[in-house]
Amino acid sequence: MTTQSDSLKSLQRQLFHALVVQSAIPFILMYVPIGMAFMFPMLNIELNLKYPFIGLTVAIYPAIDPLPSILIIASYRKGAIGLVKALKCWNRKVGVNKNSTRQESIVMFTIEA
Question: What stretches pass through the bilayer (predicted)?
Answer without folding.
Answer: 15-40, 52-76
